[in-house]
Backbone:
């Protein structure tokens, strides 16, 4: 819940900050906002990676299973690695696509990755009957998404740089989005 909450907060702050410069075709401001967003997502990705690695190390010790420690570790670790790839590389570009009204690209990439992942998972389950292979399919799917987002970004946003000087003030509304997200989360729980 924590990770999805933080992701939503960063994403909403980024979206809110991007609308005006996108409507004004202000590539410098868009670049600065995305640079700050990317750095924020990198922090989340690092935390997510560390937390999932610790979970991968501890979970096999407390869960009784016929699978070996290494197999359980790798299953959890690979799931975390796939999520890390998404946070580290894809999330910033996804926010740009949404703010720019190109949500359909995000959905298309999701469908492609889901289809490829499902096909790989089914094939590997039939061939190997090894649950570890399912997680490998998830990582492969995340890598395919990474490549698709990269090429889409390079093709559609040639004047935007993710290495611009970050404008942290533009996404400073994160604290308000955090309050909003927590409020919505508890409303869902209470209903």
Residues:
């Amino acid at each position: 819940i924590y990770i999805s909450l933080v992701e939503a907060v960063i994403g909403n702050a980024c979206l809110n900050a991007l609308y005006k410069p996108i409507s004004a075709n202000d590539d410098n401001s868009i670049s600065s906002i995305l640079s700050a967003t990317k750095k924020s997502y990198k922090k989340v990705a690092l935390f997510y990676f560390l937390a999932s690695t610790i979970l991968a190390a501890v979970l096999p010790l407390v869960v009784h299973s016929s699978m070996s420690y290494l197999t359980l570790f790798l299953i959890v670790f690979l799931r975390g690695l796939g999520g890390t790839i998404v946070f580290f590389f894809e999330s910033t570009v996804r926010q740009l696509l949404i703010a720019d009204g190109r949500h359909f690209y995000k959905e298309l990439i999701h469908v492609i990755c889901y289809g490829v992942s499902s096909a790989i998972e089914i094939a590997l389950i039939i061939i190997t009957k090894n649950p570890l292979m399912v997680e490998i399919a998830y990582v492969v799917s995340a890598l395919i998404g990474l490549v698709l987002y990269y090429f889409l970004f390079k093709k559609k946003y040639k004047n935007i740089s993710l290495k611009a000087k970050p404008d942290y003030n533009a996404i400073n509304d994160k604290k308000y989005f955090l309050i909003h997200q927590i409020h919505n989360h508890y409303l869902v729980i209470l209903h």
